[in-house]
Amino acid sequence: MIHFIVATHGPLAAALLESGRMVYGDLPGVHAVCLTEQAGIEGFRRDFSATLEAAGVNADGVLVLCDMQSGTPWNVACEAAFNPRTQPPVTVVAGVNFPMLLQTDEVMTARDVHHAAAHIIELTLPTLVQAKPVDSAQTDDF
């Protein structure tokens, strides 16, 4: 089973989880870590480490979903991911968004965190769309 950490600048991670619970219900195995001005980088490191320890319990891997590449959440997560002593294994993906968060349910049963990372990206890419006018009237019927 794969567990997840959403790691972001500011309160985005917590807000994504709150919104996810509103739409989807409980998101088991999904944790949030937020970099705040008050805690700073060292506070984020401590929070991330504690969250990684909690997320790793009974997990085959931990997939960290960051808001952007090369920021502090990404850098701290990559330190854990590239440390050969980190157990369970950790993989890091940048570009977390609401559809990606909801897709965690689709990949959580994976046993390989690297496969889970590739799969969640594959599932999320089609949700990145540009709005365009349509020729026919759209209905609310699904």
Structure overview:
- This protein is α/β, with parallel strands linked by helices and 142 residues long.
- Helices cover 43% and strands 18% of the residues.
- The protein has 5 helices and 4 strands.
- It has helices at 12-24, 40-55, 72-81, 98-107, 113-124, and strands at 2-9, 30-35, 61-66, 90-94.
- The protein has a 4-stranded parallel β-sheet with strand order 2-1-3-4, with helices on both faces.
- The radius of gyration is 16 Å and the shape is globular.
How much helix, percentage-wise, in residues? Answer: 40-55%
Alpha-beta content class: alpha/beta
Helical stretch tally? 5
Task: Give the topology string: H per helix, E per strand.
Answer: EHEHEHEHH
**Mean of all residue-level pLDDT scores:** 95
- Could you tell me the radius of gyration in angstroms? 16 Å
Q: What's the story with the biggest beta sheet?
A: 4 strands, parallel
Instruction: Give the N-to-C terminal Cα separation.
Output: 32 Å
What strand order characterises the main sheet?
A: 2-1-3-4
Give start-end ranges of low-pLDDT stretches: none
Total beta strand runs = 4
